[in-house]
């Protein structure tokens, strides 16, 4: 396995300041946050969010930032209204194995495929870039292949298997944290070995002084975290601008 299963660090984090400017809409019956660019470049970004789902301010603000770069950005509810709450988890009210069993490839893959089909065939976007944070990274990797996603970026991934990573056929960029019990140094090295063997464009950037979740839920009042968060976002945009 190239990244370990989600743990407590996956639900810790800081709520970022700002006011989302997008809208909540439906793709068929899937609740989705839409961030529309003022100057669209014809491409879309599909954000596979973490365990908090799309109705979470941090991911909505990131979607708005991607839209400001010209990308139509969508954050669908891959969890079908069953997002995890921090207080419930820390209070021992969440059965993590049962929650994960409700949200596995048999439930999430069909939702992802519906969204991809909508972007390609209804909105007629030129290319679709996938973005995955923590839990969502697994599903970006699973769909990074022909006739699905065209390029991808993931940050501090969890639950990605070596078989899933070995099956990708499109360019992948990874933002990794130095202090990460889920995407460990050993996992990074394993991922690098797999990606090098695929002979595909890939990138793994390591950010020092930060931990798991920094790119989405980091404490931006800490200089090292703010730097890493900003640079990781720029990493994604630069990757997409070049490879879409």
UniProtKB/TrEMBL annotation:
Pfam families for the chain: DLH
SUPFAM superfamilies to which the protein is assigned, alphabetical: alpha/beta-Hydrolases
Keyword annotations: Hydrolase
InterPro entries for the chain: AB_hydrolase_fold, Dienelactn_hydro
TM region(s), chain numbering: none
Gene Ontology MF terms: hydrolase activity
Coiled coil: none
Residue ranges annotated for the Dienelactone hydrolase domain, each copy included: 30-241
Protein name: Hydrolase
